[in-house]
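In practice, a research group might receive sequence data for several interacting partners and want a quick structural hypothesis before committing to experiments. The following worked case mirrors that situation: the sequences arrive first, and a predicted assembly follows.
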Amino acid sequence: MKNVVSGCSVEEAMNMIGGRWRLLIVSYLLEKPKRFSELRRDIPAISQRMLTMDLRALEEAGLVQRTVFAEVPVKVIYNLTPDGLRLEKVINVVQELGLWLKGRHVDAEC
Amino acid sequence: MKNVVSGCSVEEAMNMIGGRWRLLIVSYLLEKPKRFSELRRDIPAISQRMLTMDLRALEEAGLVQRTVFAEVPVKVIYNLTPDGLRLEKVINVVQELGLWLKGRHVDAEC
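A structural hypothesis for the assembly, expressed as tokens:
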């Protein structure tokens, strides 16, 4: 039973943060609230469509808040909610793992 | 520069452990070395093809070792390498996140 429960938790979490970009997006939002275009600059490899979809999923999960400012042109800012800030701990260990993985080979892609 | 480096580490790590199943497979291999069929029982939702591909990727990354025993029928065992055991820390925080995500809603899928 214990294993079913713990495996299920991993699955639940990976449904939310698995995938190539979501954790990366959150890591850039940890720096400060950002506009869509800033996130695009942070992650040049992501397509506009994927960034839109991932931001929407994070918003629906209550991890990211999207605020529209009635300016001309309209300004939209994305920031982490208090719930979203809980991902910092995950990002830290994943970053550590990434550094170690990169250290193992010289042909890192980024 | 710091942000480029840290973002890159997240990307590097997610290339390896992102996706729906890999971390889950590793979490079940943390229990003990297992046969392919045992992993299939642990994760009923994964297809044979995906499990094969993910195990191969983990093996190529040096995180999982595949050992063939010359018995009849042939026995194949998968176990984590010392490098693969480093993923335990990641699994622990991801599991914690999953438990918390599940706690937020009652319609958890697993």
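Before designing any experiment, note the following. The mean pLDDT of chain B is 89. Chain B has one domain: 20-104.
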